[in-house]
């Protein structure tokens, strides 16, 4: 079919902005400005470009339509899709489709209503994409999106160039260590490395809860004041999390994607995971485990995207994986494993891993001990 169009639903601004930038005039971002221009509610003090894009959108001038489900499902946008100019939509793509299950129940309920587009665009096929879905989650995604006659294409989740290392950090029980002390103990070697040999520091992402991102950044700032190249060190560290503005996130994502970028150490929550593409990250460190293995796999997947050997560290204590936390039982089991961690992940996601051809010292910390 000629002149076909595609609607891509994505969860994060970083992904949408990166893709619309790459596709140029063929793509449109369904954001508040575009919706307002369709309603005729447009601030005359702003540039007129959104009004022009609004007219082009109505007339079906774009090939690719990007947006969050909250914007795509607005009445004004759906009314446009009902017009003849949009009858050639061939695909509705749901990127990071695990969000339909993980976020759709309460955090972002519009993910559960994406299937409404089927009634408006019955000719369009649905393509659901995710790198971190178990077989059970795949079935839930199909159900939520009202997918029938489904063809599933799956590949292994294993990234053989990422060594998986899990370590215990200082416990919080017994009154000997505070939460701050346990966090500092893990982070201090990274700070010392940054301050003493900044030119040789591998690009590193440290995942933690929001509170600890700020504390970690402050720790680096304090250490930087004690050395001569203070400004150089401060320019090499940053934070990426929900409270950051969209502009800040965009700038950080672009800096990380640049192999000549200044950032060497990024403190991040799970907000820096899906869709972000920094090719030369060599280390990922979790201080405290993520809540699920799906999140864990997504986040360690930021490492080694250029194919080079990389490492994924996770530091935990028993308080982190206690039964009264949000950490899922399989994460607790993963932390406490005495057998190959890579094999456990592959079995959990029901995919294959080529363990026989892998050098044991590059596999995981458990296998390395058996060399």
TrEMBL record:
GO terms for molecular function: 3'-5' DNA helicase activity; ATP binding; DNA binding; four-way junction helicase activity; hydrolase activity. PROSITE patterns: DEAH_ATP_HELICASE, HELICASE_ATP_BIND_1, HELICASE_CTER. Pfam families: DEAD, Helicase_C. InterPro entries: DEAD/DEAH_box_helicase_dom, DNA/RNA_helicase_DEAH_CS, Helicase_ATP-bd, Helicase_C-like, P-loop_NTPase. Residues 190-356 form the Helicase C-terminal domain. Keywords: ATP-binding, DNA-binding, Hydrolase, Isomerase, Nucleotide-binding. GO terms for biological process: DNA recombination; DNA repair. Residues 1-151 form the Helicase ATP-binding domain. Gene3D superfamilies: P-loop containing nucleotide triphosphate hydrolases. GO terms for cellular component: chromosome; cytoplasm. It catalyses: Couples ATP hydrolysis with the unwinding of duplex DNA by translocating in the 3'-5' direction. SUPFAM superfamilies: P-loop containing nucleoside triphosphate hydrolases. Its EC number is 5.6.2.4. Belongs to the helicase family. RecQ subfamily. This is DNA 3'-5' helicase. The lineage of its organism: Eukaryota, Metazoa, Spiralia, Lophotrochozoa, Mollusca.
């Amino acid at each position: 079919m000629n002149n076909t169009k595609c609607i891509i639903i994505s969860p994060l601004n970083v992904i949408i902005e990166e893709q619309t930038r790459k596709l140029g005039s063929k793509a449109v971002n369904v954001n508040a400005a575009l919706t307002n221009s369709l309603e005729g509610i447009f601030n005359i003090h702003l540039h007129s470009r959104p009004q022009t894009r609004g007219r082009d959108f109505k007339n079906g001038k774009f090939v690719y339509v990007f947006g969050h489900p909250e914007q795509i499902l607005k009445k004004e946008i759906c009314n446009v899709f009902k017009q003849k100019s949009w009858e050639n939509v061939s695909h509705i793509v749901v990127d990071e489709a695990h969000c339909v299950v993980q976020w759709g129940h309460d955090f972002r309920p519009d993910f559960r209503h994406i299937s409404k587009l089927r009634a408006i665009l019955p000719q369009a096929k649905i393509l659901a994409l995710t790198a971190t879905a178990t077989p059970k989650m795949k079935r839930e995604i199909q159900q939520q999106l009202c997918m029938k006659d489904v063809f599933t294409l799956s590949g292994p989740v294993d990234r053989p160039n990422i060594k998986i290392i899990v370590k215990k950090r200082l416990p919080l029980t017994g009154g000997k260590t505070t939460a701050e002390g346990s966090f500092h103990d893990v982070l201090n070697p990274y700070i010392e490395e940054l301050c003493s040999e900044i030119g040789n520091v591998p690009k590193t992402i440290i995942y933690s809860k929001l509170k600890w991102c700020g504390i970690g950044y402050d720790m680096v700032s304090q250490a930087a004041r004690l050395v001569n190249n203070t400004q150089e060190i401060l320019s090499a560290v940053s934070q990426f999390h929900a409270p950051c503005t969209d502009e800040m996130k965009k700038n950080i994502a672009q800096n990380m994607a640049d192999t000549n970028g200044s950032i060497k150490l990024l403190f991040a929550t799970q907000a820096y995971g899906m869709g972000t593409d920094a090719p030369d990250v060599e280390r990922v460190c979790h201080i405290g485990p993520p809540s699920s293995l799906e999140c864990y796999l997504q986040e360690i997947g930021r490492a080694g995207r250029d194919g080079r050997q990389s490492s994924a560290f996770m530091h935990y204590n028993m308080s982190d994986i206690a039964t009264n936390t949000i950490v899922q039982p399989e994460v607790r089991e993963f932390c406490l494993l005495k057998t190959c961690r890579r094999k456990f992940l592959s079995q959990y996601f029901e995919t294959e891993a080529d363990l026989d051809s892998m050098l044991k010292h590059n596999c995981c910390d458990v296998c390395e001990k058996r060399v």
